[in-house]
């Protein structure tokens, strides 16, 4: 895995689903670091996307790190199917159930990376008891479920708080941000401590994916 900072993770939620494999291949070719795949169930969030069968079919289009974001509940029954389908990392919402510790252990038992996600209304300290298990902390800078939303600047303080928690832990943990990330907001989240930029419309909504990825990466201060 390339460790360039910031890492750029195009979100396929904003891609053309009629040719999703080719959309993934295109951002791979143009310098993406991760592929971010939102799994929605129509229950935890209003929309529905895809399941493990689709993920398995997409795996052949890229060897990049497949970063799977569960917006589902329950979490545990779907971990193994997505691992078998080709997920390199599964992150799920702390709000999705009371047994986050067990779910993180379950993910890691398959030898892949595990992450935890926080909605905008969830405080940073909600993950204090599981930070020893996570490889990735994803801070939602919009309310989950829809692409193309406006960035919530209120989440910058949370990113700073999470960064401080990670520093104190002494562990190597990615801090990801998702929602309204573009060339204007990327410098703000990087300065606050994020190192993975998940971007949908600011990449897939542009005519040149390579230029869009380079523009985001170039916002590092």
From TrEMBL:
Family annotation (InterPro entries): Aldolase_TIM, Ribul_P_3_epim, Ribul_P_3_epim-like, RibuloseP-bd_barrel
Keywords of the record: Carbohydrate metabolism, Cobalt, Isomerase, Manganese, Metal-binding, Zinc
Keyword Metal-binding: yes
Protein role: Catalyzes the reversible epimerization of D-ribulose 5-phosphate to D-xylulose 5-phosphate.
Active-site residues from the entry: 38 (proton acceptor), 178 (proton donor)
Reactions performed catalytically: D-ribulose 5-phosphate = D-xylulose 5-phosphate
Cofactor(s) this protein cannot do without: Fe(2+); a divalent metal cation; Co(2+); Zn(2+)
Keyword check for Cell cycle: no
Pathway: Carbohydrate degradation
Annotated substrate binding sites: 11, 69, 145-148, 178-180, 200-201
UniProt family annotation: Belongs to the ribulose-phosphate 3-epimerase family.
GO biological process: pentose catabolic process; pentose-phosphate shunt
Enzyme Commission number(s) of this protein: 5.1.3.1
GO CC annotations, alphabetized: cytoplasm
Binding sites annotated in the UniProt record for a divalent metal cation: 36, 38, 69, 178
GO molecular function: D-ribulose-phosphate 3-epimerase activity; metal ion binding
Signal peptide positions on this chain: none
The protein, known as: Ribulose-phosphate 3-epimerase
Transmembrane feature ranges: none
Cofactor binding remark: Binds 1 divalent metal cation per subunit.
Gene that specifies this protein: rpe
């Amino acid at each position: 895995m390339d460790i360039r900072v910031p890492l750029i993770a195009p979100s396929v939620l904003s891609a053309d689903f009629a040719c999703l494999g080719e959309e993934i291949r295109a951002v791979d070719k143009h310098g993406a670091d991760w592929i971010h795949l939102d799994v929605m169930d129509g229950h935890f969030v209003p929309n529905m996307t895809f399941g493990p069968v689709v993920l398995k079919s997409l795996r052949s289009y890229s060897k990049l790190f497949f970063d799977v974001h569960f917006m589902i509940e329950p979490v545990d029954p779907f971990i193994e199917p997505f691992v078998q389908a080709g997920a390199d990392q599964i992150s799920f919402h702390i709000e999705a159930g009371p047994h986050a510790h067990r779910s993180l252990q379950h993910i890691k038992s398959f030898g892949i990376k595990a992450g935890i996600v926080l909605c905008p209304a969830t405080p940073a300290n909600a993950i204090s008891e599981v930070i020893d298990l996570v490889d990735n902390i994803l801070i939602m800078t919009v309310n989950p479920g829809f692409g193309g939303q406006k960035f919530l600047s209120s989440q910058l303080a949370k990113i700073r708080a999470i960064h401080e928690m990670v520093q104190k832990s002494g562990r190597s943990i990615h801090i990801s941000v998702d929602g309204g990330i573009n060339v204007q907001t990327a410098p703000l989240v990087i300065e606050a401590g994020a190192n993975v930029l998940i971007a949908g419309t600011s990449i897939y909504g542009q005519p040149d994916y390579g230029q869009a990825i380079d523009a985001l990466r170039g916002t590092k201060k």
